[in-house]
Design goal:
Blueprint lengths: L3 H22 L5 E2 L12 E2 L3 E8 L4 H12 L5 E8 L5 E3 L2 H15 L2
Parallel strand pairs: 3-4
Antiparallel strand pairs: 1-2, 2-3, 4-5
């Protein structure tokens, strides 16, 4: 079956990302999204504050994943992020500069109170 290896890789990556977020938010606060039709109705990983699209592959398209997260998170009060891992490389997160600055601003205010 063509593509089944990449689907399995994506599923394993989502489970790994879920575990990483569970280490931050607690296992009861994170779960894998339910994929309806093309997966557009729900984030890959559901957390208290991020609309997370997870991608793993030879060379992931972080920009497309972030676009999908941005579209999905509209009106939901969540930061859209793409959590990507290219084969053989370290995982990375893509977020818009505006959202990143919001997060840093909030972190800095809490840290300096």
């Amino acid at each position: 079956m063509a593509g089944s290896g990449s689907k399995l890789k994506a599923q394993r990556w989502e489970e790994e990302v879920l575990g990483l977020f569970a280490g931050v938010f607690g296992r009861d606060k994170v779960r894998r999204g339910m994929h309806y039709l093309d997966g557009a109705k729900c984030a890959d990983i559901i957390t208290p504050m991020f609309w997370s699209e997870a991608r793993a592959g030879k060379r992931t398209n972080a920009r497309a994943a972030l676009q999908r997260a941005t579209e999905g998170s509209k009106g939901k009060g969540m930061y859209p992020i793409a959590v990507c891992k290219d084969d053989g490389d370290e995982a990375f997160v893509t977020v818009s500069l505006a959202d990143f600055l919001d997060l840093v601003r909030e972190w800095w205010e809490l840290r300096t109170q």
